[in-house]
Amino acid sequence: MNRFLGSSRSQIPESRLPLDHPLFPTLAQRGTPHMQRQDPRSLPFRWKKKSMLPRVLDGWVVVVWAIFRQSAMSGPVYASRTVHSVKLIRARGLAMGQEHVGKGVHVALGPMMNMGRVAAGGRNWEGFGADPFLAGEAAYETILGMQQAGVQACAKHLVDNEQEHKRSTSSSDVDDRTQHEIYTHPFLRSIMAGAASIMCSYNLINGTYACENDKVMNGIVKAEYGFRGYIMSDWAATESTMSAATGLDMTMPGDIDFNSGDSYFGGNLTAFVRNGTIPEARVDDMATRIVAAWYFLRQDAPSFPAVNFDAFRVDDDSVNEHIDVQEDHDKVVREVGAASIVLLKNENDALPLKKPRSLVLIGSDAGPGRAGPNQFSDQGGLDGVLAMGWGSGTANMTYLVTPLDAIQRRARKDHTSVFWFLDDFDLPAAGNVARKKSAAIVFIASDSGEGYITVDGNEGDRKNLTAWHGGDALVEAVAAQNENTIVVIHSVGPLILEPWINHPNVTAVLWAGAPGQEAGNSLTDVLYGDWNPSGRLPYTIAKRIEDYSAQVIPGDGVQDILSIPYDDRLQIDYRHFDANGIEPRFEFGFGLSYTKFDYSKISIKKVHVKGREVDAARQWDQGHASPQVEGGSIASWLHRPLYEVSFNVKNTGRVLGAESPQLYINFPESAGEPPSVLRGFDSVPIGPGETRNVKMTLSRYDLSIWDVNAQGWRRPEGTFGVTVGASSRDKRLEGTIPGSR
Fold it and tell me: Which regions are flagged for Polar residues bias (predicted)?
């Protein structure tokens, strides 16, 4: 089931470099963010039968990070997680991959798959949502798209990096079952997609740094999951030379500290090999994994573009060639943005807009920043419409279409009078300008990012879950004066909406996330009904911040390692709300449409295979755990379809729409699982009056729990329920797995 390599290793020349070769210290060559290319074909190898590869680990690996000057794909990272169309997720990955390759990039540092355990987590916006299945499938499709274009994907961050506060001096203390079922599952799916590389994180895991954690890197990723690519450190996350022995294959950027000139690898690794502390075979393995990825993506081909940018020297035209990689990716960005918008409320069919006589746009999030879309380094600030969060996962935008831009263009066609007021704080003036308008659209936002940047006291993680710039008060002021107040939310994660969500004059609410540089166009498509909203929430929106299972632990005053206990175990996000009977404001998977859908005729049947099942499959069927073998967790017998769930969805409305049916498993009580667990989703376009048959499959893996004693995947005893519906709580159809009891 692992798409990586296949027979690629047989194509790699057998070679060896002596330990005293001048290239050997380049085990830790610098790579921040642009490394000079050293073509392996030009290295002065000494050929030897039983040694497969040169003993250089990353001296020739080139670009690993890019802030593109000519990129169209900046920003729609968040947006993709509310999209339930796997085709669109893959198309986004392909476009990103094409842009990386066009700039000569060999390794793209993504996708990011942190789980959003903490609703205020700073880097949640880079990931895919607060469910392992959702994150895993989105990562799988993204990696297929990226690597189809020829760039190496780097799945990150391995693992349990769920808050920015003290990320380098905190220990995420996680039990073995939770680690397997929740936090490493997206990496399993990334490996099955053929990810060339994985990045380990800054934090400690159960008291050991992630980048020297033998249990995670060697035990889970390389042994259980059969990963044959390489693991690189996050920048300056390597803590010792011994990390090479515990699974780390590449240290980045090479220095112990940025620009320090020394390294845990390089000469230190040479010494550890010479004195027998680290076996030569391990260094061979490190090099094999790195070079294999290069060959696997055919980056040795003469046609692969040369590096044509340097993010640290953006004004140096000698290296920053004007090579435009945007193509028609603006269409992908716009479609992803529109498909990701979630309609949370729509009273009296306030939306879509129907050629209103007058409109007023209120709030700074409706318009441009005062100094363009890139006025803040690494997007570390909020001025104008929120297109993305901040930090190393951002990109410089070549343009930014604001809601004000796009709505004005549409309004001219409709002969609608447009007014705007972009001040967030003059509440009396905002209310006054909203009076007597056909509709008032209020724009509010909330931002976050990586912890090396602090914005308005938010140290990466958000201080709270309220709208920035007094957004709640702005909504209330406008709603007090206009009976048709529409709220548009651009946010990196959940907000508490209680101050105004039930206000009778708030007729519609659109959750637009962080949609990238086509923000205004994608929003306008939905506002006017050119795109029927089909986005679904990738997390729960609570009524109180205390309702979530975990909060940011600041660790103020902690001098040593901060312990972060994962006491919520399997109960993150909606699982926690369901298990504890907590009523959310909007549940996981929620999203309205401009039409209505009916569900009917559920059918569940076993998928029969030709020939005899392997012994491991028969043992699993009898209640035994999967065997402890290399790659056992990605075995084909474990992941092939075992049951098919079929049902009908009918569009009972008058307009075309895409429904996003979701399949949840209700494990037997003996399993100790949360009440409902997501195991399938899709986006199904259906015309008015049309009925579509939808099929989803369940594998043995989908019906398994991690047995910590047997160290394998086991089917729990008892009856399995199946629920199909429009969200985690909107259950339309129910059934049971045949033969489960």
Answer: 1-13
